[in-house]
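Quick start: what a row looks like.
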Amino acid sequence: MSEETKGAAGTKVMDGRPNERAGIVEEGEPMRNEGMDWFVLRVASNKESSVRETLLRKVQIEKMTHLVGRILVPTEKTKTIKGGRQRVVETKLYPGYVFVEMRLEPDGRIPQDVFFLIKETTGVGDFVGTAGRPTPMKEHEIEKMLIDSRKPDDEPTIKLVFEKGESVTIREGPFQGYEGTVDDLLPEKGLVRVLVTIFGRQAPIELEEWQLSKADEV
């Protein structure tokens, strides 16, 4: 996705009715509704969800579902483990942006009623593009955004930021201050196995990710 379209958004409209669950796109949905294109709307940080919900409500009230389709804020659920306790965090994949599917005028401008409906919403900035003429997203950008907007797995994943062979420093625990090398990743446990030299011999130690930092960040 291009630099301009690092967007965010969430919710789905089918037959003019928004899906109650934000950011979810069902398998088999079309890339775009007939006569519409996807556009990227800049919004205030941390306002993505409230902007989406407000826009969906206003579109329904003003009966503009023939002009504005789906509005999406793709999110991702990840699981972290600290002190043996699991915590699930939902993060926006495209912070600061909302994806809006809508129908433009023949000259490429946003219909006036839609323009004011969107611009008068708190937290809204501008569309990616030139004044009054937003730039449609490219096919590969739409495809990636829609994939990111599909229903997440019931079981969130654990993401580990380290890689095998990487040099790390232990920042917490009985071996604090020791340097070592990542020997293996155990994402199902949220652990990183590190080879540390203790009393002249290498020993594997399993640590939670938060107990480590990259050697060049210390």
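That is the whole record. The longest strand covers residues 75-82. Residues 48-61 form the longest helix (14 residues).
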